[in-house]
Design brief:
The chain is an alpha+beta fold. Helix content is 37%, strand content 18%. The chain has 14 helices and 17 strands. The longest helix is centred in the last third of the chain and has 29 residues. The radius of gyration is 30 Å and the shape is globular.
Length: 457
């Protein structure tokens, strides 16, 4: 089917198909796609005029005539122009331009699974040359915003519009049929914001809470968690109270006895961020199963609130997040601990190297009453895959200790660790390589893992 769409529709000059680069827009709804005004004026939608839709189509055509001064219609099988208002008749086929609310079939090649075809609702925006989608909708398309292109097809009959709306619209394919996870969920910035908002040390002032409350679907203001305090002037609301306003009022959810949501209120939360991530037992997967397409409204509202909260709080990553200590003493102690771990890994690497290649048995040479261990073929490390694998395995044996060491020294306000703990970006493996030993560089040395004496910047 996709091959026919590309060969017979997209490859020809037509007024009902387009191809454009996509960009992200978190302000539009999940089921919408932003179409530029100049592109929308070139895309045509055919509608049969009947007694049921005559007033609606006539109004749309009159508005189009004010701007373009002409309109194509088909009457009695003949194509003709209409240049004056109120010239439509029942039985005509009007070719009007694309407008808000029209369904568009979107796919991003290659379409490797059934959810790569989604019908979105058009929203005309004052942008140019690109189409915009909500960043949460990138997962089913397996795309990102580095130049990926979307293909769009405009349905031209009532039967095709009904088929798109009932089969491939986002409201009817909320759960992935392959693994049962939700097709759209919190990712990237919104996931990191949700992790920060549900932490125990977040307290919001009245003005901050009201600013975020405007974007919530719930209109009921909860009682503040802190009425009076020596540390705060005025009442304070917790981040869990604000997050509870993003959930349905009667929702019940629990996970591993560490997280309990009763009647849409987060009671306890000491589980980290695994319940926010996209898995079969995650919050939004359970919400889609319980509430169906209504959960899309809550997810769309949650993204707006979380993006606004992250804008108010701020989250930026710099080189200071990789340089864990500013004082020389603490940095030296960390460096010594990492060097000891790497020496242990290097010793294990030497043993594995001897076992793998007997030619590399060390030959002891004594110079000035000191022992110097040399290798016969130390240059073969670069070209010998088995030796490289052995060095990586030797490093992995002690890497768990390195991870614990890094986790002990990193501060709580580290932006990289916030994203790692939230599951939005990065991993502890890469962070430890960047901060402690800068990864596997494979230099011309016996053991290709070294900690830098200082940052190159």
């Amino acid at each position: 089917g996709m091959k026919w769409l590309k060969d017979a529709v997209l490859s020809k000059r037509s007024d009902n198909a387009f191809r454009s680069t996509m960009v992200g827009d978190p302000k539009i709804k999940l089921w919408e796609i932003g179409i530029p005004e100049d592109l929308a004026s070139s895309l045509v939608v055919s509608e049969h005029v009947s007694s049921y839709n005559f007033e609606n189509i006539n109004l749309k055509c009159n508005l189009h005539l004010l701007a373009k001064e002409e309109l194509f219609i088909r009457r009695n099988g003949k194509l003709m122009f209409v240049r004056k208002a109120d010239q439509l008749e029942i039985g005509d086929i009007a070719y009007r331009p694309l407008q808000d609310g029209d369904l568009i079939l979107i796919n991003r090649p290659p379409s490797v699974h059934q959810h790569s075809l989604i019908a979105f609702s058009a929203k005309i925006l004052p942008i140019h040359s690109v189409v915009s989608i909500n960043p949460l909708c990138c997962t089913p398309f397996l795309g990102d915003f580095d130049g990926d292109c979307l293909h769009g097809y405009i349905p031209q009959s009532v039967r095709s519009r009904i088929e798109l709306g009932e089969l491939v619209s986002l409201h009817h394919q909320l759960l992935n049929m392959q693994d049962g996870r939700s097709l759209v969920s919190l990712t990237h910035d919104s996931l990191a914001a949700a992790h920060l908002l549900t932490s125990t040390d977040v307290f919001l002032k009245k003005c901050e809470f009201q600013q975020l409350q405007m974007l919530c679907l719930s209109v009921l203001t909860p009682v503040p968690a802190v009425i009076k305090s020596m540390n705060f002037q005025g009442s304070r609301w917790t981040g869990k109270q604000l997050f509870s306003m993003l959930l349905p009022s009667g929702m019940k959810f629990s996970c591993d006895r560490k997280l309990h949501i009763l009647n849409g209120e987060v009671l306890t939360c000491s589980l980290g961020s695994s319940w926010l991530q996209n898995n079969t037992s995650g919050l939004f997967s359970v919400m889609f199963k319980q509430y169906g397409c209504k959960a899309l409204d809550f997810l769309s509202s949650a993204q707006e609130v979380l993006c606004e909260f992250l804008t108010m709080r701020g989250l930026s990553v710099s080189l200071s997040d990789l340089y864990m200590f500013s004082d020389h003493y603490s940095r030296r102690k960390l460096t010594e601990g990492v060097k000891m771990a790497l020496d242990e890994a290097e010793e294990a690497f030497r043993i594995k190297q001897i076992l793998l290649d007997p030619i590399n048995i060390p030959v002891l040479k004594c110079h000035d009453e000191t022992e110097d261990v040399t290798y016969g073929q130390s240059d073969c490390i670069q070209s010998n895959p088995s030796v490289i694998r052995s060095s990586i395995m030797a490093f992995k044996d002690v890497f768990s200790d390195l991870l614990k060491m890094v986790q002990q020294h990193v501060s709580n306000d580290n932006s990289m660790m916030v994203m790692i703990n939230a599951g939005s970006k990065g991993s502890m493996l890469k962070y430890a390589q960047q901060t402690a030993c800068v990864g596997l560089q494979l230099p011309a040395s016996k053991f290709p893992l070294r900690i830098p004496s200082q940052l190159s910047c």
